[in-house]
Amino acid sequence: MPINSFFGTWKYTSNVSEAKKLQRDLSNFQQYLSAQSLDEFIDLESFLKALNRGLYFDATIPTGYGLGSSGALCAGVLDQFGKHPKQLSMAQLKSLFSTMESYFHGASSGTDPLVCFLNHPILLGTEMKKVSLPPKAAKSSFTLFLLDTHHPRVASPFIQTFLKKWDDSDFANQCVAQLLPLVDEAIATFLAGQWSLLFQTLHELSLFQYRYFDFMILENFKNVWLEGLSSDHFKLKICGAGGGGFLLGISNNFAKTQKALEGYSIIPFF
Questions:
Q1: Which of 1, 68, 149, 230 could form a disulfide with 112 if both were Cys (CB 3.0 to 4.6 A apart)?
Q2: Contact (Cβ atoms closer than 8 angstroms) between residue 146 and residue 249
Q3: From the centroid of its chain, how far is CA 105?
Q4: Gap between the Cα atoms of 21 and 15, Å rounded
Q5: What is the spatial distance between Cα 201 and Cα 179, in angstroms, rounded to a whole number?
Q6: Residue of 238, 237, 228, 222 whose CA lies nearest to 260
Q7: Residue 231 and residue 133: Cα distance in Å, rounded?
Q8: pLDDT digits over 211-254, tens only?
Q9: Torsion sign across C-alpha atoms 87, 90, 91, 95
Q10: Which strands make up the sheet holding 143-148, listed edge to edge?
Q11: Of all helices (H) and strands (E), which one includes residue 77?
């Protein structure tokens, strides 16, 4: 789902040295897209010319936080330089974005850039479709929030660690038997606006992640994670590939949660 508190936009600078600093890795990204033969979908020549004129992507989305900074950039490239993106189906867009975003992560589902590009919540399952979020007025005292670890990370090492662990049949079986049903239940209860059930499901999901995904949780945040598990008013889960960035939280008493997490940076968003 999009989080509209964060966004990115294209800007130009005429200062050559400033442009190189602001563009970061955009020139190499453009070369990667060219090597992937994506000229059919993206006007890569125009993209390169724009970079030479000082184009850069100005975003409020922190990099390395699991909030889709690379996804927003990929969506921005297709939005600005795409040849016929509106003619592509969601499945085609997702496949294209998977190739594009793999430059940053080594492997990508393409989901984050798809959500950014469409600016709409997407439900993935037996079919991929746009969905509506539950009305905020119905959630009563429940709040979804982000907890800032102030620790940017690179996603690819954590993704690779997960893929290696997947070779362990016990780990894979636990994910299939426990994690996937919990994720499905969390999505279903959220979309149905069943906040009490969502809170309990996220407790179970948080517990599972603490047991099996501990390598994705910063050591200095494990105590607050356990505090959430023992708490009756907030729970935490990994956001993106973990390892830092933001943690996703749910609270049924945000004032009480703010007091419990005093000293931490928390951002309510739904």
A1: 68
A2: yes
A3: 12
A4: 10
A5: 11
A6: 228
A7: 27
A8: 999 999 999 999 999 999 999 999 999 988 889 999 999 999 99
A9: positive
A10: 234-238, 246-251, 143-148, 265-268
A11: helix 69-81
